[in-house]
Amino acid sequence: MESGEEIEIADDNNEFSSVMGRKYSPVMAHDNDNSAVVEMSSVRPGSSSSSSLPNHDLKKVKVGVHPNMASDEREESLANHNTNGPQRESKLELFGFDSLVNILGLKSMTGDQIQAPSSPRDGEDVTLTFEQPKPTADKSGTLMGVFMPCLQNILGIIYYIRFTWIVGLAGIGESLLVVACCGSCTFLTTVSLSAIATNGAMKGGGPYYLIGRALGPEVGVSIGLCFFLGNAISGAIYVLGAVETFLNAVPSAGIFRETITRVNGTDIAEPITSPSLHDLQIYGIVVSILLCFVVFGGVKMINRVAPAFLVPVIFSLLCIFVGIFSARHDRPAVGITGLKLESFKNNWGSAYQMTNNAGIPDPNGKIYWDFNALVGLFFPAVTGIMAGSNRSASLKDTQRSIPVGTLAATLTTTGLYLVSVLLFGAVATRDKLLTDRLLTATVAWPFPAIVYVGIILSTLGAALQSLTGAPRLLAAIANDDILPVLNYFKVADGHEPHAATLFTVFICIGCVVIGNIDLVSPTSTMFYLVCYAGVNLSCFLLDLLDAPSWRPRWKFHHWSLSLVGALLCIVIMFLISWAFTIVSLALASLIYYYVSIKGKAGDWGDGFKSAYFQLALRSLRSLGANQVHPKNWYPIPLVFCRPWGKLPENVPCHPKLADFANCMKKKGRGMSIFVSIIDGDYHERAEDAKEACKQLSTYIDYKQCEGVAEIVVAPNMSEGFRGIVQTMGLGNLKPNIIVMRYPEIWRSENLTDIPATFVGIINDCIVANKAVVIVKGLDEWPNEYQRQYGTIDLYWIVRDGGLMLLLSQLLLTKDSFEGCKIQVFCIAEEDSDAEGLKADVKKFLYDLRMQAEVIVLTMKSWEAQGEQQESVEAFSGAQQRVASYLEVMKQQAQRDGTPLIADGKPVFVEEQQVEKFLYTTLKLNIMVQKYSRMAAVVLVSLPPPPLNHPATFYMEYMDLLVENIPRLLIVRGYHKDVVTLFT
């Protein structure tokens, strides 16, 4: 529909529609008030409907020019009003409406915090820019995006050239224990990783991003750098493995050969040839440099062809298992017994002993191998579980693919290792297991070359992954600008981290010079274990604190599992080497200390900040008065106990108000402030206030509410509340939500002072930037034992920082509402794309880990719905009362010779606008009654009191909005986001 096109609403079958035959024109937000409303032209003269309406001659008076406005500002305001007119207005003006089509950019919830749009009271214009979405690259699924990369990184060189040797030394029994110990560690870490990774969107940096955002920048950088070192050293392990395999397959390629003729001091029939240390060093350096050139020249190509490296690996595994089952039948060999129970029994026990540098048993050797040492050697065979999380940006569904793919790869490889222990232990003698490092190739069917190719491709592919992944991890740490010394490794978006790649290759070559996988592997293991311990501790802290932002989609986790995983990592570190453990932890501690001193401050909403909120004193010292990160946001309701009416003398607060305050806390965590006001002079009523405060505190304890009681003495309620909203609380423990009851009795008991007081309180909250939750139907609010069924319906009209969405989620955590489902009704303009809006809202809710049904109601469907006789009577009654109020004000103004005055101040009323406001609230009320008749509770946006309108008029709008809705929460957020997409 075009912007200036008018539509006419008429329904011959509906009395009210024919009565209200009007013209409407969709319009844009006004410059001055950033608001929106259903615009209604007056009834056409001579129309059939005009006679059906009460005849109120509502004359127009200009609106929008404040009497205190400067002359030039007034002229500009009038110019804007006159030139833009209806073209610059928009529907739902009463609600300060910013269209959901605009909101769903949701920039402040999807990334760094930005300034929220100005309210009508800020006097600032808001410009919203629309851009076509950029085309995105093809995303990977669970299989190719997570499972295959993890499998390729986990299944590596240790399995091929060290696993049979480990079985020979440890025996079948203790080898199973080695695999179970290491596999349990990575399994528990994978569970923790799945929980953190599914608690929001992830950026680059993999485990560094997860740990940093959970435990803070200091811990994140220190553990992230340790993980970087582990990846860089792993590259050296893969290079050495490829070179060793090549030299074993082609002995003639060696420059320096080593031949062993004695094992354990006894002569052997056939000499054992093993690669020389110098050959490993020379070839390893050459291969590292070649890989460096490949990484520099074709990183994108490497990522594309990386899965192809896995095909020969899987084929070689198949050949190994076929060879094991066919051993001794077609190719008898010395030491290969085939699957024999006798071999299984002989190899069950351990045979720890001294070996030389090549791993050959030798009483005069320099290296002694025991269970602890073998754990350190084998552990790199189960690492690689972070490969999927490192690719989070290229996954279709991060929150599903990472846990499923990573756990599948972990369980698959662990199962493979356990089966392999049994098969290798039963297929060869112990001497063969100890002296043939490439037993996997020896038993392979039809010939060993297949396994040689598989090993080399596997190790080269894994080495390329390490040399491409580690620099990006270092660049991600540098780009966060926490540690100034890392500024050399910063990289702009879309550019390759060349400096970080050179540094990674330098570390890799340094470890290659050592020339012994058995010595390099435990070092890499230590850094991996430090990282895994950090992941487990992160999940433990987040799970233990259980902040409202902690809503991972992966539900199979518990803080105790994460704690066991972290302790297991530490235990394995000490099992391997207490000296290496102390060095690793000392290095991480030094980095932490250095970052604490030299690093730049950054608030990432980490778990420690959430802990500070539960420790008030430390919270005040640590958080100060800065804006709270959405992940650490806790509702701190200020419950206004003074009711609009009277309660028994021994009940200082409405009991259902206390129940509702508890519904705003997740598992009862959080603080509430219960406030009441006593009219009078403070010097005269100070003792009364103390007694009332004691009584209110006792009542709070009785209702089992976590909160404090405060009693304020003031000349009147308005003055008392204004002082409360300015001074209550300390630092970030100030209340952020004002909770009160809707004054349903104001007209029935003719309480003429309520409208001005009620409107004044709402205006004070807006000025103080406090959220407001008004409970209508408080007497019907359920207690903790009353189960509710049906739906929790949200009529999301204005941007509220996600408060309404979060409140609905908090309600679901309570026993009384846990059987309900959430429905989100989005109000859209006529010319908006309803289906596109629905898809955007569903995607947004999915990223927020919120389960809700989305229903889009366009203005066209709004206007097309019918009205009930009750609605006709309510609307007509409101019109009559508004006209009566206006007439009284005019007579008073004429008698006194003053402008229109209400509530002790001048007002400017445009009667047509008042009629539009009434009609807007009427139509929304009809919509709620139509779609939410069976709802357990309805949440709707609270419209701000229009500028320069009498308070009585606003109460008429509100009464029309809440008419015949038994249980309603009227919510107004504030200019801070309380939900975020990111973990």
UniProtKB/TrEMBL annotation:
<keyword id="KW-1133">Transmembrane helix</keyword>
<feature type="domain" description="Amino acid permease/ SLC12A">
    <location>
        <begin position="145"/>
        <end position="613"/>
    </location>
</feature>
<comment type="similarity">
    <text>Belongs to the SLC12A transporter family.</text>
</comment>
<dbReference type="Pfam" id="PF00324">
    <property type="entry name" value="AA_permease"/>
</dbReference>
<feature type="transmembrane region" description="Helical">
    <location>
        <begin position="280"/>
        <end position="299"/>
    </location>
</feature>
<keyword id="KW-0325">Glycoprotein</keyword>
<feature type="transmembrane region" description="Helical">
    <location>
        <begin position="402"/>
        <end position="424"/>
    </location>
</feature>
<feature type="compositionally biased region" description="Low complexity">
    <location>
        <begin position="41"/>
        <end position="52"/>
    </location>
</feature>
<dbReference type="InterPro" id="IPR004842">
    <property type="entry name" value="SLC12A_fam"/>
</dbReference>
<feature type="domain" description="SLC12A transporter C-terminal">
    <location>
        <begin position="655"/>
        <end position="776"/>
    </location>
</feature>
<feature type="transmembrane region" description="Helical">
    <location>
        <begin position="499"/>
        <end position="520"/>
    </location>
</feature>
<dbReference type="InterPro" id="IPR018491">
    <property type="entry name" value="SLC12_C"/>
</dbReference>
<feature type="region of interest" description="Disordered">
    <location>
        <begin position="38"/>
        <end position="58"/>
    </location>
</feature>
<feature type="transmembrane region" description="Helical">
    <location>
        <begin position="306"/>
        <end position="327"/>
    </location>
</feature>
<feature type="transmembrane region" description="Helical">
    <location>
        <begin position="143"/>
        <end position="163"/>
    </location>
</feature>
<keyword id="KW-0633">Potassium transport</keyword>
<dbReference type="GO" id="GO:0016020">
    <property type="term" value="C:membrane"/>
</dbReference>
<dbReference type="GO" id="GO:0015379">
    <property type="term" value="F:potassium:chloride symporter activity"/>
</dbReference>
<dbReference type="InterPro" id="IPR004841">
    <property type="entry name" value="AA-permease/SLC12A_dom"/>
</dbReference>
<feature type="transmembrane region" description="Helical">
    <location>
        <begin position="444"/>
        <end position="464"/>
    </location>
</feature>
<keyword id="KW-0813">Transport</keyword>
<feature type="transmembrane region" description="Helical">
    <location>
        <begin position="526"/>
        <end position="545"/>
    </location>
</feature>
<feature type="transmembrane region" description="Helical">
    <location>
        <begin position="175"/>
        <end position="198"/>
    </location>
</feature>
<keyword id="KW-0769">Symport</keyword>
<protein>
    <recommendedName>
        <fullName>Cation-chloride cotransporter 1</fullName>
    </recommendedName>
</protein>
<feature type="transmembrane region" description="Helical">
    <location>
        <begin position="219"/>
        <end position="241"/>
    </location>
</feature>
<keyword id="KW-0630">Potassium</keyword>
<keyword id="KW-0812">Transmembrane</keyword>
<keyword id="KW-0406">Ion transport</keyword>
<feature type="transmembrane region" description="Helical">
    <location>
        <begin position="566"/>
        <end position="595"/>
    </location>
</feature>
<feature type="transmembrane region" description="Helical">
    <location>
        <begin position="371"/>
        <end position="390"/>
    </location>
</feature>
<dbReference type="Pfam" id="PF03522">
    <property type="entry name" value="SLC12"/>
</dbReference>
<feature type="domain" description="SLC12A transporter C-terminal">
    <location>
        <begin position="787"/>
        <end position="982"/>
    </location>
</feature>
<keyword id="KW-0472">Membrane</keyword>
